[in-house]
Amino acid sequence: MINDQLTHDFLGFGLGLRTAHFEHVLQHQPQVDWFEVLSENFMVAGGKPKYYLHAIAEQYPLVMHGVSMSIGGTDPLNMDYLKALKKLANEVQPKWISDHLCWTSVHGQNSHDLLPLPYTQDTINHVAARVGQVQDFLGRRILLENVSSYLSYQDSTMDEWDFLNALAEQADCLILLDINNIYVSARNHGFDPLEYLSKINPKRVQQFHLAGHSDYGDYVIDTHDQDVVEPVWQLYQQALQRFGLVSTMIERDGNIPEFPALQQELQQAAMLAAKQFPHLVNRTFEAAVLAQGQTT
Q1: In degrees rounded to 5, what are phi and psi of residue 283?
Q2: How far is 278 from 2, CA to CA, in rounded Å?
Q3: Measured between alpha carbons, how far is residue 3 from residues 87, 136, 139, 193 in Å?
Q4: What pTM was computed for the model?
Q5: For 272, phi and psi rounded to 5 degrees?
Q6: pLDDT tens digits for range 91-115
Q7: Residue 265, Cβ neighbours under 10 Å: how many?
């Protein structure tokens, strides 16, 4: 049922589609390659969100990103949720669907947080079986994203990167590699983010996330309400060297600026990629070149 090819083609540089920017996107059709939508925001029968979603889907490729699958949880998979997810996917035909490698609920109660898992083979077996059910139901591979973490489990028997690699292989799913989350977790747990990158299988990495965070000195929290900081940009450049051109987007969920400011930040990602891949040409890169008064 699932296509033998692992990753999809490079989609370019995208942004998270947020309510504050609906009208701007429709009116100005900015030079952005694609948008990522939060699945749960559009799993409704109708109304304005669905109107804007379908209108924007006619102009741009979309991918769907969820926060409620609880793929690592012990409750049975929520089939009502999965049915609504599949219905939305049938409507907008996303390039791919992603969620987080975590658990979010227990005994039917949603924590509204992305909680980390113990890194053990038993956890891999449990999660891989659930991923198999989801992928069979959706008829496609899904992407799982590494989450930021602020605690670790004494029962863990492997590093996070080995856990992520083994899970993706056993479940036959793809990876959404969040560069900011790697940086945040590296700061909180004291590991080398470059070692994390070096251990991830490039063949399964479909997408990058970039985002900002809140730095409190002794610890860092993934808040998505700040600009991408220089150390994360540097880590992104290292990721490009390791994985090549990977579809990249910037997340912003709080303190959301006007669309042109986010677009300019995304253009920075395109320009960094172009330094390593000089023949890169797409809508976002062209907009960045024009903004700098250069010629391609």
Answers
A1: -60, -45
A2: 34
A3: 20, 11, 9, 32
A4: 0.93
A5: -65, -40
A6: 999 999 999 999 887 777 776 778 8
A7: 18
